[in-house]
Amino acid sequence: MVEIWAEPGGCAEGRHDLMIRLIDAAADAWATTFKAQWVSDPAQLCAHRQAPEYLADYTKLAYPLAWHAEFRAHARQRGLGYACSIYLPHDAATIAPFVDAIKVSSFEAPLRDVLDAAVATRLAVVASLGMGGHAGDGYPQVRWLACTSAYPAPLDDLGLRRIGCEGYHGYSDHSHDVRVGAWAVCAGATLIEAHLRLDDTDPANKDYATAFTPAEFAAYVQQIREAERALGDGQQRLMPSEAPMLRYRVGGAMTLKREECMLTMSVPTDCWVVDELVSKEYLDELIRRMRAAGKPNDSIIGYRVANELYPKTEWLADCEKRSVRVGGS
Fold first, then answer.
1. Whole-angstrom distance between the N-terminal and C-terminal Cα of the chain?
2. pTM for the full predicted model
């Protein structure tokens, strides 16, 4: 199952109560992990990024370290994992006791010091990479997320084709488009990260335009899960919806794997299916179901078995004694 991380970004405003509400919103929208952000020294981060204009915003990420224990406990109570983004190398060891995974942002990922510190914690590490970087070099234990570091990111710049082609495992989505997570999954993503805000978030918040409302995030998750269903497992097999059409297949019946035999429960009684591995237990269950449906024994679906290839076994003889039609024209 694809992991879906909900990130509040700056929408938590450094407030304990808003973080708890955002964790609840993430759980209600069926995210799998809540990912906070934290920095020990906002001024150092400003200097690190050469971004003095962001000091007020980064200060809101410098909330008390002890809060993380409460946030993780609440997230786990709601069935979520708890991760956190770090931005300074020494923050990795500091945050490690309070989180399940560490995230490194696209702005810090090119610098080995932050990645090295995150990897040294032996926790799961996820890193975003945009702005022309390349994933994977020297860090096989890191799960890399393709991203576009624009807020919001325009459709033409999303670059989803990178997933599965350049060593990326997933996508950090800044598009504010409920379709994009599902598209990323179809491109091969196994982890999706997206921003989440509350309905009453101040429109002046810098993350407002990028973050999904709880209802939007729930729709986002639903589309991802539907994409997973549509993708299937990549194995060629008889699909349940195809079973009624099997009788018309040109060139003879197809051989089914044992685990596919249960699909024939919904096949019309004149549809014949080949299987050399079907068990007596399966046929007993088939008999039980057909009888429960009020069908006579002689109308139970049988298996067209080519005797010259598959000599009758004990279970075939036993089923014939039960008046189950085995074979056919």
1. 43
2. 0.77
Give me the chain's average pLDDT, please: 82
Domain limits, the chain:
3-231, 240-321
What CA–CA distance (Å, rounded) separates 167 from 286?
Answer: 46
For 37-62, the pLDDT digits (tens) are 999 999 999 999 999 999 999 999 99
pLDDT for the residue 132: 80
Radius of gyration of the chain (CA): 27
Does 3.30.565.10 match the CATH number of domain 3-231? no
Q: What is the 3-state secondary structure (H, E, C) of the chain?
A: CCEEEEECHHHHCCCHHHHHHHHHHHHHCCCCEEEEECCCCHHHHHHHHCCHHHHHHHHCCCCCCCHHHHHHHHHHHCCCEEEEEECCCCHHHHHHHHCCEEEECCCCCCCHHHHHHHHHCCCEEEEEECCCCCCCCCCCCEEEEEECCCCCCCHHHCCHHHECCCCECEEEECCCCCCHHHHHHHCCCCEEEEEECCCCCCCCCCCCCCCECHHHHHHHHHHHHHHHHHHCCCCCCCCHHHHHHHHHCCCCCCECCHHHHHHHHHCCCCCCEECCCCCHHHHHHHHHHHHHCCCCHHHCCCECCCCCCCCCCHHHHHHHHCCCCCCCC
pLDDT tens, residue by residue, 232-246: 988 877 777 877 776
CB atoms within 10 A of CB 163: 23
**Cα torsion through 23, 29, 30, 33, rounded to 10:** -30
pLDDT of residue 166: 82
Q: Do residues 95 and 38 make contact, with C-beta atoms less than 8 angstroms apart?
A: yes
List, for residues 154-209, the tens digit of each pLDDT value: 999 999 999 988 889 999 999 999 999 999 999 999 999 999 999 999 999 999 99
